[in-house]
Write a structure and sequence with these properties.
Methane Monooxygenase Hydroxylase, Chain G, domain 1, 80% helix, 6 helices
Length: 207
């Protein structure tokens, strides 16, 4: 009887991380070509991206339940899958905020944030692409550092944009709305960093 082939969780991670990149590019396009009349429809499209990734996460968990031996600790696989899901959820939440808060126009800071989010998701996926062969990979450590560097840039940008918001904006409602939007944009880079740091921890445990 042929032995059952184990599931390739590393490939599953990369596939979900690719969805995160797609969502990041969709957010970037939404922000840079912002049209308040289209945001409701764009919300639906973003939700489809998030839902597709969610189904992949559920399939991964289903495989993990039935797996006899996993390539890394089962808890680490579960943790990373939920952390990846958090990244996609947060990207979707930004679009939801634009709609819920009836945002009429973008602030320049949002353009800079979405650039960082695209870079962060791309570097995060590169970590997953190298994850299976981490013992031989010279690239994965550099990509983990890259995600961390982008998060530091996002931190600095957050402080700059919040200060500028309070200096230049006179409308208290707009201040309230954009503080929350900037919080969420910055948190996406935080979440990508958390994923990369967790990958680093898993590598340490398995080295």
């Amino acid at each position: 009887m042929a032995r059952k082939k184990s599931n390739n969780y590393f490939k599953m991670f990369s596939d979900i991380a690719e969805d995160a990149i797609k969502a990041a590019y969709f957010l970037e396009n939404t922000v840079k070509n912002y049209d308040p009349d289209k945001i409701e429809e764009q919300n639906k499209a973003m939700h489809e991206l998030e839902h597709a990734a969610d189904l992949k996460k559920h399939e991964m968990m289903k495989c993990l339940i039935s797996e006899f031996i996993a390539p890394i600790e089962r808890e680490d696989i579960a943790t990373l899958s939920y952390m990846l899901d958090d990244v996609l959820d947060s990207i979707e939440e930004v679009c939801q905020m634009f709609f819920m808060y009836n945002v009429k126009e973008m602030r320049p800071g949002a353009f800079d944030f979405v650039d960082l989010i695209v870079r962060s998701t791309e570097a995060m996926k590169a970590c997953f692409d190298e994850f299976e062969n981490f013992r031989k990979s010279d690239l994965i450590a550099n990509k983990i550092v890259e995600v961390n560097v982008i998060e530091e840039l996002a931190d600095a940008m957050y402080f700059k944009e919040i200060r500028e918001l309070y200096i230049k904006e006179q409308d208290p409602i707009k201040i309230m709305v954009w503080v929350q939007i900037y919080d969420k944009l910055e948190s996406i880079c935080d979440q990508c960093e958390n994923v990369a740091d967790t990958i680093s921890s898993v590598i340490m445990k398995n080295s």
